[in-house]
Predict the 3D structure of the following.
Amino acid sequence: MSASYVPGAGRGAAAPPRLDADGRRARRGPSGPAGDLSGLLGRVADGARLSAADALRLFRDASLLDLGIAADLVRRRVHPDPVVTYIVDRNINYTNICVVRCSFCAFYRDPGHPEGYLHDTASLHAKIEETLALGGTGILMQGGHHPDLPLSFPRLHVHGFSPSEIQHMVAVSGVPLAGVLARLKGAGLDSIPGGGGEILVDEVRRRISPLKTMSDEWLAVMEEAHRQGLPTTATMMFGHVETLEDRVTHMQRVRDLQDRSLAGAPAAFTAFISWTYKSENTALGGEETTSADYLRTQALSRLFLDNIPNIQSSWVTQGKEIGQVALKFGANDMGSTMIEENVVRAAGAHGCTTRVEIERLIRDAGYTPRQRDTLYRPVA
Ligand code: SF4
């Protein structure tokens, strides 16, 4: 394949949906001058930083395949080897009891609900043992905002707790954020997942999860974590009520924080993971966005987030085939085998796979699979 951007190579591809100010699908407007967009994509593929205004133009007017080609060129500049990484790990959702009631969430149960659960230490240990036996290298601990869970709960070596869970610990314990993170790190926390990022625009957050942390609080946890030497990931859950402008604003806020962390903190974001809203069993309901919209957004994230090395394909929400296609739209990582996952599965996502299958998916897409750990280091 050519190593340079071919203007208009993907023109004529099916147009993805656009969202109007209310987050509904809007009719596609007229494209800008094709040469203009091609020049812009070429400059970004060559390493120029993309502005928010230009990202929005590309979102609106560039064709699906042109975005994919440019994102793939950037991916190959950052990761020249045709290798796609994956991790064998397990999401332990230690409780589904939650007082936050996000309208997009099908996983949580109110306190006192008969289907509510809280895993005890023995069952957590059993899940960890089983993960190790399956060749797993990490545990992702995430759960609801349980009203009675004390800060002393985690006594295991874990990767986990999204910023909103950590802010909940701050509220429940009265310990300041820096102190909570220091105690979690002291108890064995190695890194923090980017869960709960959704869209980092408060107007959107007030519509879909008004009781959850707002954007500044989410970013504050990540910035403090980086200061304390805890690497984190960044996520974006899209395709619900947000606009394309909101998606770009989200990426801009992530990129700005990453610039600050890379300039002065011992840790930073290791990866950006975007996925689409799944509507099944949720209060929010509504239509789900298309796979084309997913691929455009993922490609844009590779083009815009020039300071985050790893972009993960979301086969869990998109299905395994689109997960493979996403590897040509800027992704260099296939994510997790998901020995266990309960949150997006409750909303109709596609579940788990095996090491054998994820390696086959990667090979069939034309890449060499390589197992990694949570910090994206190769596993021997
Ligand atoms: S997404 Fe998280 S915080 Fe929101 S209701 Fe579900 S479990 Fe609770």
Remarks:
- The pocket of iron/sulfur cluster is lined by residues 98, 100-102, 105, 107-108, 144-145, 164, 209, 212 (CB under 6 Å).
- The longest strand covers residues 269-276.
- The chain has one domain: 83-371.
- The radius of gyration is 20 Å.
